[in-house]
Each structure stands twice: as structure tokens, then as C-alpha cells.
Amino acid sequence: MNLNKKSKWVNTALLLVLSLPGYARAKTEDFSFGHPGLAAKVGRTVKINALDNMRFSPDKLRVRAGETVRFIVTNKGQLVHEFILGDRKEQAEHEQEMKRMGGMAMPDEANGVTLRPGQTKTLIWTFGKPGEVEFACHQPGHYLAGMVGIIQVK
Questions:
Q1: Percent of the residues in the chain that have a pLDDT greater than 70, as a whole number
Q2: Are residues 26 and 80 in the same domain?
Q3: Whole domain around residue 26: which residue ranges?
Q4: Which of 75, 76, 82, 136 meets the CB 3.0–4.6 Å disulfide criterion with 148?
Q5: Is the pLDDT confidence value at 124 over 80?
Q6: Are residues 115 and 48 in the same domain?
Q7: For 37-52, what is each residue's pLDDT tens digit?
Q8: DSSP assignment, residue 31?
Q9: pLDDT band at 103 (very low <50, low <70, confident <90, very high)
């Protein structure tokens, strides 16, 4: 392969990777409550279960500002669930987005994952300034039914 063909192939592959859903957001979007974390910086792993009674277990956590946490989230139910990190504003925006989309499952994003029944996914997050962050499910009716947990950032 000559240099021009190889360079063109590398550029095409790079553009393909950069256009994958969630990639640009994960690398460029700022959140008021922190940012996607690096595996090498994880200080703690927390296992969260999403349940069909519209609850998370556990539903309350405490972290330190600057701490990087690996969340291992398992859907223990028979319904699709989400695990979305956000402040109240972010959660309200995501709830409205889900309503506009008719409850269609969203692709994974920098601050959240969608889980089919029995599925487990990992999300790594570095928390920002002190305050309160929610983790919630926005499948139709779930958030309104109380499927939300609280993270106190100290």
C-alpha cells in the first residue's frame, strides 16, 4: 500500500471512530457535576442494581469531589432501565428528551447507559464540585415513579 492510500485509510478510520454515537460528547461536553473518568484513576467501585419496583439498590451514595468511581450497573428486572447521572437540570432535560422520543431506548452516552433485562454495564465518572447528583431511569413512567438515587458529593 502506498503512503497516500494508507494515509487516506487512516483518516477514514479516524473519522468513523469520531462519528460513533456518544464519542464526541464523551470527549468534549462539560457537565456541571463532573466528567467521564479514566479507568486508571478509579478509586472505588460501586455496584448498583436497577429493579422493576422502580428503585435502585443502593439508592444513596457519598463521594468526594474529584473522586473517580466505577459504577457497575445491573438490570435485575424484566423491564428496560437506564442509569443516567445528572444534576436536576440534566435529569429534567433527559426526561423531556425521552418523552419526545416516545420512550425509545437511548444509546449509551458519556453520563449514562441503557440496560436490557439481565444486562450489566460499567460507567466511570469523576465527580466535580460538592453538591447533589442524581442517578435516574427515564424509561416511560420510571422517573415519575421514583426511580432515582442521590449521590452527595462532599
A1: 81
A2: no
A3: 1-30
A4: 136
A5: yes
A6: yes
A7: 999 999 999 999 999 9
A8: B
A9: low
**What separation in angstroms does the CA of 79 have from each of 38, 59, 116, 150?**
30, 18, 7, 22
The alpha helices in 2-152, defined as continuous H runs, are 3-18, 23-28, 88-100
Average confidence score pLDDT of the chain: 84
Cell numbers standing for residue 32: 456541571
Q: Give the separation between CA 5 and CA 56, rounded to whole angstroms.
A: 51
The rounded distance, in Å, linking the Cα atoms of 68 and 40 is 9
* Greater pLDDT, 20 or 54: 54
Q: In total, how many domains does the chain have?
A: 2
- Global confidence as pTM: 0.79
Q: How far does the chain reach from its first CA to its final CA, in angstroms?
A: 55
* 138-142: Cβ within 8 A, 24+ apart: 138/82, 138/84, 138/91, 138/94, 138/95, 138/97, 138/98, 139/79, 139/80, 139/81, 139/82, 139/98, 139/103, 139/105, 140/98, 140/103, 142/54, 142/81, 142/82
Based on the fold, state whether residues 65 and 103 are members of the same structural domain. yes
